[in-house]
Amino acid sequence: MSYYTNIISYQNYTMWSFIWNDLLYQPVFNVLIWLYNNVTNQNLGWSVVYLTIVLRILLLPLNIIGERNKVRDEQVQEDIKKIEKDYRNDPMLQKEEIRKLVKKNKINPWAKVLSLGIQLLVLVLLYQVFLQGITGEKLLRTLYDWVDFPGSINIYFFGFNLGNRHDILWPGFVAIILLADIYIDLKKHKENVTKSDLAYFVLFPAFSFYILWLLPMVKSVFILTSMFFSMLLGLFIRTLFRSHKKQIN
């Protein structure tokens, strides 16, 4: 019994090892090194930035759906407030109208969840890159034939070592942007802000800072790039949505 169990365990390990190393880790690693060699003048920090942008472009359909859903959700919240005001003297009708509105504008969150999941996967892959190292024989074994050996890797970005942990500056940037983003969102709904919202406003950026402080600096670079991309995409979607709404009206 144990013999067959060991065989099955080995087969499962081999399968997951193939999926992780051959289908996920190696392609991401090779794209990163290709960017390092051919696009960013051998600057690994900018290679991570470009890799993040490439990833976000590939995920653009999911990102657009996610941002569109966010805009629609904000519009639904505004409509709910209007219904609450218009039917404040008739709670039963108010609930019914809100139910109809929510049902009509049902939003599927899976596009955003999938997009975030893929980005989290890339974060883990980048962590493995720095955990296992990007020099020596392992680098040679991991590279595809069409990717040139880069020699010694420059892991400094604006004077900061991408592999260093316990960095304050870059996680601080992430925390500040998160604070600003949450503050702007809360300000839009200031009349409905709860204590839990205020706790989230403080604790989530603080928790993010702490986690990134524990991890290599490259994580902060990846997240900052992704956040800026999301901001620009969100601005574009909102502008497009408002323009479309004006045309309808």
UniProtKB/TrEMBL annotation:
A single GO molecular-function term is:
membrane insertase activity
**Entry annotated with the keyword Transmembrane:** yes
Q: Name one GO biological process term.
A: protein insertion into membrane
Origin: domain of life:
Bacteria
Q: Which Pfam families does the UniProt entry name for this protein? A: 60KD_IMP
Q: Localized where?
A: Membrane
The alphabetized UniProt keywords are: Membrane, Transmembrane, Transmembrane helix
Give the transmembrane ranges: 44-65, 109-130, 168-186, 198-215, 221-241
Which membrane topology term applies here?
A: Multi-pass membrane protein
Q: Where is the Membrane insertase YidC/Oxa/ALB C-terminal domain?
A: 45-238
Choose one Gene Ontology CC annotation of this protein and give it.
membrane
Q: What is its main location?
A: membrane
Which family would the database say this protein is a member of? Answer: Belongs to the OXA1/ALB3/YidC family.
Report the protein name in the record. Membrane insertase YidC/Oxa/ALB C-terminal domain-containing protein
**What is the species listed in this Swiss-Prot or TrEMBL entry?**
Candidatus Magasanikbacteria bacterium CG_4_10_14_0_8_um_filter_32_14
